[in-house]
Design brief:
Residues 1-19 form the signal peptide. One of its GO terms (cellular component) is plasma membrane. This protein is mainly β and 346 residues long. It folds into three domains: 21-124, SRCR-like domain (Mac-2 Binding Protein, Roll); 129-230, SRCR-like domain (Mac-2 Binding Protein); 234-337, Mac-2 Binding Protein, CATH 3.10.250. It has helices at 55-64, 161-170, 266-275, 286-290, and strands at 10-14, 22-28, 34-41, 44-47, 70-75, 92-95, 107-110, 120-124, 130-137, 140-147, 150-153, 176-180, 196-199, 211-214, 226-229, 234-239, 245-252, 255-259, 299-301, 333-335. The longest helix has 10 residues, at 55-64. The relative contact order is 0.11.
């Protein structure tokens, strides 16, 4: 779910910069670990003056946000949208030595005469991804996050099924089907355990886009998180004159199967055509659809109910995989316009 104005924010809850609970974030960058520096003061977000803002300050900020190494200081003016004129500048400057865990631990001095032309910015490394280790394939295994160059397992106590959904999406796998703890001895991690807690809605593109916070725990590898995702989803139209028409087949668990037409409508046609890079659905009469013939073997999906806005058929509600009350005379067929080269489907 894209944030308003396509801003990417990184937010961390920590000790109050002014003695009470406060937060810090980066606004307007290409990812959550880059942007204009803002801190929360009395329930409003304020910018930070760049006087004394240096690589030591950036290193502390990157650490507080759970990002990778500090890369550079930037002027906050390069990040859009333009700072509102009525947004305040923070009343203090930060003097950091680079080893503090958060900006709240840095020395502070009064900021005098700063304007938004002097807003501070920062660029940190975006922590590299996530993997599922020691499973039967890349879409099943122990969750590991690469943090500051080291792969760390994740404790189940700070995990959720929403986070599992994000991991499966980030890895290009199918839907999350299982998250559990207590991997057996053969699949337990051996190294570090991630010292952060991810709070995901389940809609994020990657785990790095979830809000996160430093989390003190006493977890052991007996509590390593294990996640299982469905295999990558695929679909095709077969029996037609091109890839934009034919009987619909979907790939699940390495096997192609057909889709039952119970509940199928033009909204679902639209999703399929878009996913295949074709034009608009043509909705031909039943006689035309039947010319593609019945399938054989598996019937994977039934009662598919799309809104038409889904980027993938996999995201449309349906019965569980393989559950149906159909035969192959009810196989779905779809006919789309041929997409003309150089034109985009509106």
């Amino acid at each position: 779910m894209a944030p308003l104005f396509s801003l990417i924010l990184a937010i961390c809850t920590g000790p109050g910069i002014l003695g009470s609970l406060s937060r810090v974030r980066l606004v307007g960058g290409d990812h959550r670990c880059e942007g204009r520096v803002e801190v929360q003061q009395d329930d409003e977000w304020v910018t930070v003056c760049d006087d004394y803002w240096n690589m030591d300050s950036v290193a502390v900020l990157c650490r507080e946000l759970g990002c990778g190494a500090a890369r550079k200081t930037m002027s906050g003016t390069v990040y859009g949208p333009v700072t509102p004129k009525d947004q305040k500048v923070f009343i203090h400057l930060f003097r950091c030595n680079g080893i503090e865990e958060s900006l709240s631990q840095c020395e502070k001095e009064d900021a005098i005469g700063c304007s938004h032309v002097e807003d501070a910015g920062a660029v940190c490394e975006r922590p590299e991804s996530v993997r599922l280790a020691d499973g039967p394939g890349r879409c099943q295994g122990r969750v590991e996050v690469k943090f500051r160059g080291e792969w760390s397992s994740v404790c189940q106590a700070g995990w959720s099924f929403a986070a599992a959904k994000v991991v499966c999406r980030q890895l290009g796998c199918g839907r999350a089907t299982l998250t559990r703890r207590g991997c057996n001895k053969e699949t337990q991690g051996q190294g570090a355990i991630w010292q952060r807690k991810a709070s995901c809605s389940g809609q994020e593109v990657s785990l790095q886009d979830c809000l996160s916070e430093v989390w003190e725990h006493n977890c052991t590898h007996n509590e390593d998180v294990w996640v299982e995702c469905e295999d990558p989803f695929g679909l095709k139209l077969v029996g037609g004159r091109s890839h934009c028409e034919g009987r619909l087949e979907v790939l699940h668990k390495g096997e192609w199967g057909s889709v039952c037409d119970d509940g199928w409508g033009q909204e679902a046609d639209r999703v399929v055509c878009r996913q295949l890079g074709c034009g608009q659905p043509l909705s031909p009469p039943v006689k035309v659809r039947r010319r593609f013939g019945p399938g054989v073997g598996r019937i994977w999906l039934d009662d598919v109910n799309c809104s038409g806005k889904e980027p993938s058929l996999e995201q449309c509600p349906h019965r569980s995989w393989g559950y149906h009350n159909c035969n192959h005379r009810e196989d779905v067929a779809v006919v789309c316009e041929e997409q003309q080269s150089g034109l985009l489907d509106a």
